[in-house]
Amino acid sequence: MLAVIALAGLLVAGCQKDTAGGASGAAAYPSKTLQLMVPAAPGGGWDLTARTMQKAMTDGKLLDKPVEVYNVTGAAGTIGLAQLVSKNRGDAHHLMVMGLVMVGGVVANKSPVKLDQVTPIATLTAEQEVVVVPANSKYTTLKQLMDDAKARPASINWGGGSAGGTDQILVGLLAKAAGADPKAMKYVAYSGGGEAKAALLAGDLTAAVSGQSEFKDLVSAGKVRALAVSGASGVDVGGGKPAPTIKEQGFDVELMNWRGVVAPPGISDGDKAAVTAFVDKLHGSAAWTEASKAQGWEDFYKSGDEASAFFVAENERITAVLTDIGLG
Q: Where is the signal peptide (predicted)?
């Protein structure tokens, strides 16, 4: 509890701290090229989120400056996090896409750089996870897969995003719900969704877990089969009809993967207000609404102090979950 209180205090302090320079107000922002860091390899959910933001900003004519997206890979985003904190301090024109995966990654990787060192701006979306297998897999239901995961855990090669992220958390929760040992699950962590997809198609994985939008192309092409989604209701992940939920198949598990955006530490109050106002404008734009709907993302918008409080609560929740399934 003391750690959570300390995290809350640091987040609030980071929001209140005032330094000189940078954007002078919401109307002037951005006043130069806006950089969006994706702390993961191309092809994954963070990458898709950043490039969707870039397109919506441009198509919606929300700014008259360039928007550049670049990738920094490694360790559930914590390498990018360290770069944002050390290299980009005080630069309000340098933002980073992140989410639940990074919260877990900081814990699982024992990262020396923490999320309480950045400036929270907003959460954007929440997305269901999907469990998929190759189209030629013998598994046609989640129950069949989990029966084998319980009886013969070494026979199932799971794959997904970085260690401690949403994908591995879901595998651990599924194992617990099926009566299997979460620690016995063979999980291969990849730095981006593109790598996990390639491994699944190459036959290196029995099953893969990721955000539902990341596998839509492969499901639609008939190359993989969606066994289940992790939300409260079924959603079409590319097969033309809603995939069944995990709960509908007898496992008491529900998990949503949220994504958001943060700024470096050391930006002024005026800069923080300007960045937040700009992201508020992005969220309220028709271009963003249409793009989010096309991706199947659920609106999960929180900004300013509400976002800061949510980050604190998620740190506490995910730390507890990772400890419970042996990853903390």
A: none
- Picking from 221, 249, 277, the residue at the C-terminal end of a domain is 249
Cβ-based neighbour number of residue 311 at 10 Å: 22
Span 226-252, pLDDT tens digits: 999 999 999 898 888 899 999 999 999
Q: What is the mean pLDDT of the chain?
A: 88
How far is the first Cα of the chain from the last one, in angstroms, to the nearest whole number?
A: 16
CATH of the domain at 92: 3.40.190.150
Peptide linkage before 264 cis (omega within 30 of 0): no
pTM of structure? 0.75
Domain extent for 276: 34-126+257-325
For the record, the structure tokens of 138 come out as: 């013998």
Do residues 252 and 92 make contact, with C-beta atoms less than 8 angstroms apart? no
Q: Are 274 and 91 in contact (CB under 8 A)?
A: no
Give the pair of three-digit tokens for residue 231.
Answer: 């939300």
